[in-house]
Structure prediction request, 262 residues.
Amino acid sequence: MISRIAGTVLVRLRSLFFKNPGKPGSLSHAKICPLDIPLLPDEKSGFRPYPVFSGLTGSDNFLSTHVSVLSPGKIPHSLHTHQEEEILLLLCGELDLITTPEGETSGSGRRHLEPGHLLFYPAHFPHTIQSVGSVPANYLMVKWSAIRKTSESPLAFGHYDLAGYGLDPAEIRNFHPRVLFEGATHSLEKIQCHLSLLGPGAGYEPHADPYDVVMVVLEGEVETLGKQVLPHGVIFYASGEPHGIFNPGELPARYLVIEIHW
Prediction:
């Protein structure tokens, strides 16, 4: 009874907080969102977010994706924590992660990021970032929230360099997934993040997954749901929705896949 009441309150609060969440289940269908990186910065404030998609999934949990542009030297917000969990993918420019010495394994409280680096922020992880390159940093954020589930050993903070999970292009003939991390979190039964490599002319037939999926094309091109998706394009597949993928190009395609199991 208490969990049902908590769920109803959470959904209503999200509907009030997010200006355009759509009706519950507004992310029940696929979305393909092209991005032309780099995006323009805000010359006055030094920080500009670009919404990609957001709303309630079919399970009435909130999922949001956006790209932020941060000018050199700028910090978007003070060191803070929150209940939502996040993934940050740096698309261009350079960033420093700033956290507490306790949150950083090196004890320095600062960690450098270059394009292709990915961060996983667990719930309540203290963090902010600073743009430290000579050009504005463009980074993709994927954020989600759900009624908290218990996990005896939730995933900890993670920092991954996607360049270390590749193959020689000459070796890429078919479909090659490489898992970055996987496990339960404070709010998810499981999350799996993997890097997929798809050879020219390769692909797989439509199928339906019992979880939501966010994909980001990093290199090459893919076709899905009858549309072409180029680098930095973001794809969302709703749980239970049939989808397939194909590489129509002459070069291997490389894309990030985030499986979200509520």
The CA atoms of residues 102 and 255 lie 32 Å apart. Residues 167-261 form a domain with the Jelly Rolls fold (CATH 2.60.120.10).
